[in-house]
């Protein structure tokens, strides 16, 4: 249960393009659970021409469908990609066919859109480095999806299109026409604590919590159990003391950045200042981004959750713009720890982080 944390359900319907508040809910049941293992799918990349020899562990991939002139028409993402097999292309022996296994990223189409007369796809990595091109893409034996995870939203004051759907004689048909949905966890002031997920209403009943209230059953991805320990630390807004994130492992530190992003506020300070990064707990990449956010914006601060995010934050709207000076205290902790884990997609090393910060006109002083 999520005692003490309320929720807001937002959505759109066919008649209203603007996001609307559909319900305020007193509590959520079965929200926290270990997520199912992501469904790894197999894909054939046909007619590949690569810039260089690729490793078997590809990590995060960006696929860009191309139009007839070779211009990108969009992006589609695969995570944790690994090469399973390669062979000469049957139609062009100068090219290669490659079988990979990967997890499609959430909240995108099941398959990339492709325009008529397309010349194929461009392929790049997580750092936008081009890897090559290929002519066609096919999924091999689509994997069976895991069963849905059901969450009960209790004591919901329902309004708008959702209330109309619940009151309709054929309400289940109306639910199917309800569009985008988002569930927000709320802090003690009623402001956004963190996005809890994207639910789909599958059942409802009057709530015993009071007249006019409903209990909704929704299908949505669960929140990892560690979130149940993180959210209470943000219930009264941004924490008053630094380094609360340091008690969590890498997964918890990454999830800490969700409420940190939701609570960012205030105008940018003038460029040229000096900020102090407490490096005692920077033992992984996630810890670096937590510590950098607090160095720039104080306890619970946010300044990006990846290097591309930091580069965006430096353009303004996140507390400070470049240039500025960053004093990195206890930097030896990061020097010993970062970039050493044997992961499919290796995190940045200490030296690579320094190089990135200096390229972005941040003067780094090692202390």
List the topology elements:
Layout: E1 6-13, E2 16-29, E3 41-50, E4 57-66, E5 76-88, E6 96-104, E7 120-125, E8 130-134, E9 136-140, E10 150-158, H1 160-167, H2 171-177, E11 181-186, E12 192-197, E13 200-206, E14 214-219, H3 227-230, H4 250-262, E15 274-278, H5 285-297, H6 307-313, E16 324-329, H7 331-337, H8 350-359, E17 362-366
- Let me know the largest β-sheet: 7 strands, antiparallel
Oligomer state equals: single chain
CATH domain fold name of the largest domain: Barnase, Chain D
What's the CATH architecture name of the largest domain?
2-Layer Sandwich
Number of helices: 8
The global form is: globular
> Mean pLDDT, as a whole number?
90
Please give the domain count. Answer: 3
Task: Name the strands of the widest sheet in spatial order.
Answer: 12-11-1-2-10-14-13
- How many β-strands, per DSSP? 17
How much of the sequence is in beta strands? 35-45%
Q: Percent helix among the residues?
A: 10-25%
- Give the low-pLDDT segments: none
